[in-house]
Write a structure and sequence with these properties.
It is a single chain. The chain is an alpha/beta fold and 292 residues long. The protein has two domains: 90 residues, 434 Repressor (Amino-terminal Domain); 194 residues, 2-Layer Sandwich (Endonuclease, Chain A). 50% of the residues lie in helices and 13% in strands. The longest helix has 19 residues. It starts with a strand and ends with a helix. 32% of the residues are buried.
C-alpha cells in the first residue's frame, strides 16, 4: 500500500471510490467547500476522500450522493459496497505487512490475497505464483535492488508465501498465459530452469490453475506491449483491477472500462495460445531439451 498522511494509506479501492465521488461532484458543479459543508466537515476531508486517503462512512456517501443529485439507488448501493470492501481490507492484518521484502508489491499482494481469480500474461518470466524458490532467487540475484543475501531470501519467502493461495480451502483461480520465450530463457542456469519447468507441469495439474503458452509461431498478438495481471473478486459489484509492472514504475488500472480493455486483450491472447494440453506438451519438450 502507498504511504499516506499520518497513519492513513491510499488504497486501490479507496482511490476508485474517491474518483467516483470526484466525478459526481464535478458533474454537479459543486465545489469541495460546498461538499464539505454538506457533511459538516472540512475541505481537507473532502480532498482526502476524493484521493482515497481515508475510509469512508456510509452516511457521508449517502449525503454527498444526494447533494450531487445522484438518484440512482443501484449506483449508490454499489458505492456503499465498494466503501465496505475498502474498510474491510484496510482492517486486514495480512502477513505481507510484516515483511519489508514485500516492498512496492504490498498493495498488489493485498489485492491478490482478497481475489478470487488472477489472469496473468507474462512475456519474459514465469508468473510469480508459479515460480520455484530457486527461480525466484535467481531473479532476485540479477536485480540490482537486492544485493544482501538475507534480503534476497526474504524476497523468496514472500513469493513462496503467496503461493499458499493455490492450495488453500478456497483456492485462487489462476489463468496464466506465458510467451514461449519465458520458458526458454535459462534463468539461474539449465538445472534451475529444468526444475522450474517441472514445477510448472505439476501446478498445471491443479484444477484451479490454467496454463497456456503463446508460441513463437503465433506472430503478432494483442499483448505485445507488456506483462500485466487482471485481478478479479467474488463480489458482484467489484470491478476488475489491473496491475502492470514496468522497470521504473507500477501502473494500476482501476476503472471499469479501462480494466475491460485489458480483459479483452488477455482473452484474445489466450485464444491465440496453445490449448492447455498442447501447452503442457511444449513445456515438457523444452524441459527435456535442457542440458543439465
Amino acid at each position: 500500500m502507498r504511504e499516506g498522511q499520518g497513519n492513513r494509506v491510499s488504497t486501490v479501492l479507496g482511490r476508485r471510490l474517491g474518483g467516483e465521488l470526484h466525478r459526481l461532484r464535478t458533474e454537479a458543479g459543486r465545489t469541495q467547500a460546498q461538499a464539505a459543508q454538506a457533511i459538516s466537515a472540512t475541505s481537507t476531508k473532502i480532498v482526502k476522500m476524493e484521493s482515497g486517503w481515508v475510509p469512508m462512512r456510509d452516511p457521508d456517501i449517502r449525503v454527498l450522493c444526494e447533494f450531487y443529485d445522484m438518484t440512482d439507488e443501484q449506483f449508490v448501493a454499489s458505492l456503499l459496497d465498494l466503501a465496505r470492501l475498502d474498510r474491510e481490507r484496510r482492517k486486514a492484518k495480512g502477513w505481507w505487512l510484516q515483511s519489508p521484502a514485500a516492498g512496492s508489491m504490498a498493495e498488489y499482494i493485498a489485492m491478490e490475497d482478497a481475489a478470487s481469480r488472477v489472469r496473468t500474461w507474462q512475456l519474459s518470466l514465469v508468473p510469480g505464483l508459479l515460480q520455484t524458490a530457486d527461480y525466484t532467487r535467481a531473479l532476485a540475484v540479477s536485480d540490482e535492488h537486492w544485493e544482501d543475501p538475507d534480503d534476497i531470501e526474504r524476497v523468496v519467502a514472500v513469493r513462496m508465501q503467496r503461493q499458499h493461495r493455490l492450495r488453500s480451502k478456497v483456492p485462487l483461480q489462476v489463468h496464466a498465459v506465458i510467451w514461449e520465450a519465458a520458458l526458454r530463457q535459462e534463468v539461474g542456469g539449465a538445472a534451475v530452469m529444468c526444475a522450474q519447468l517441472g514445477h510448472l507441469l505439476e501446478v498445471a495439474e491443479l484444477p484451479n490453475v490454467h496454463v497456456q503458452v503463446l508460441p513463437f509461431r503465433a506472430g503478432g498478438h494483442p499483448s505485445m506491449s507488456g506483462p500485466f495481471n487482471v485481478v478479479s473478486f467474488t463480489e458482484a459489484e467489484a470491478i476488475d483491477v489491473v496491475h502492470a509492472d514496468g522497470i521504473g514504475s507500477t501502473v494500476w488500472v482501476e476503472g471499469r472500462e479501462e480494466s475491460a480493455v485489458y480483459s479483452r486483450c488477455f482473452d484474445r491472447t489466450a485464444r491465440m495460445s496453445l490449448a492447455p494440453r498442447d501447452s503442457v506438451q511444449l513445456i515438457d519438450r523444452i524441459r527435456k531439451g535442457l542440458r543439465t
